Amino acid sequence: MLNVKILGPGCVNCYMMRQVAVDALEMLDAEATIEHITDHDEMGKYPIMYTPGLVIDEQLVCAGRIPSIKEVMSWAEEALAREENDKSK
């Protein structure tokens, strides 16, 4: 199961980022928890300069823009492949 975080203050772009992530995960039929981080101290744990940010399995994959559904699908597939690889070890 993927762990997805949206980093940002709760602006329109944050909600657009969340919807893109939800749509991409649904298209992949991937299970995920989605969390919206608005706390500045918590956001500071990631190398983010601009919001919104997208974190998948603790890796910042996008910041300062809203990615396409295709991009999020690609990042999610990479994270799922890493999970599978870690399980097989």
Question: What does this molecule look like?
Answer:
It is a single chain. Helix 1 crosses helix 3. The longest helix is centred in the last third of the chain and has 20 residues, at 69-88. The protein has a single domain (2-88), classed as Glutaredoxin (3-Layer(aba) Sandwich), CATH 3.40.30. The model has no long low-confidence stretch (mean pLDDT 95). It has three helices and four strands. The protein has a four-stranded mixed sheet. A hairpin with a 2-residue loop joins strand 3 and strand 4 (59-63). It is of the alpha+beta class and 89 residues long.
Number of domains: 1
Number of helices: 3
Low-confidence stretches: none
**CATH architecture annotation:** 3-Layer(aba) Sandwich
Cα-atom radius of gyration: 13 Å
Look at the helices and sheets and give the structural class.
Answer: alpha+beta
Helix content: 40-55%
Mean pLDDT: 95
CATH class: Alpha Beta
Distance separating the two termini: 17 Å
Oligomer: single chain
Strand order of the largest sheet: 2-1-3-4
CATH topology term: Glutaredoxin
Strand content: 15-25%
Task: Give the secondary structure arrangement, pairings included.
Elements: E1 2-7, H1 12-28, E2 32-37, H2 40-43, E3 53-56, E4 59-63, H3 69-88
Parallel strand pairs: 1-2
Antiparallel strand pairs: 1-3, 3-4
Quick summary:
With 89 residues, the chain is an alpha+beta fold. The chain has helices spanning 12-28, 40-43, 69-88, and strands spanning 2-7, 32-37, 53-56, 59-63. A 4-stranded mixed beta sheet has the order 2-1-3-4.
